[in-house]
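Take a look at the protein record below with the fold in mind.
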Amino acid sequence: MISNKKEAPALERAKKDRVPTFVVPYVKGEPAAEAEKKMAAIFRQHQVDLVVLAGFMRILTPTFINEFSNRIINIHPALLPAFPGLEAQKQALDYGVKVSGATVHIVDPVCDGGPILLQDTVPVLENDTVESLSARILKKEHELLPKAIDLFAKNKVHVDHRKTTLKE
C-alpha cells in the first residue's frame, strides 16, 4: 500500500493486516513524475496487478497511467460522465439533479474520463447539503470499490478501448 501522505489512516490498517506499506510524498517544486517513478518501482517490485486510487487526490501523469494501462481504478463521487473533477457533490447540488451516485472507472489520461466499471445511484434529497450528500455517496463508494476489486481478482474485467465488459 502506497500513500502520498504519512498520516493516512489506511497505512495503519494495512500494517495491521501485514500489507507492506510505503509513503511516497509529492515534493513541492519537484515534478510529479519523480514521485510516480518511485511508486512505479515499488509496484513493479511487488508485482502489483491492480492500482486502486482511494482518497488519492492527484492527477497521474500519462507515463504512469500508460505503464499500468487498464490496471488502475478510481472511485468518483458522481455518476460519470457527469460532474468530473473536484467538488462533484457541489456540482450536482448546484445543477439541481435529483439523483447522484458513485462511479468506479478505469483510469486513463483524461481526468475522470476512463471507461466506467461500476456505478450506483444515491437520491439527492431536497434538504441535502454537500456534507449530507457526500456522506451518502461515500457509503455507496465503500460498497462499489470492493466489488470492483473483486471483479479484477476474478479476471472478470475486459477493457476494450473506451468500454468495459464484465465477463460471466
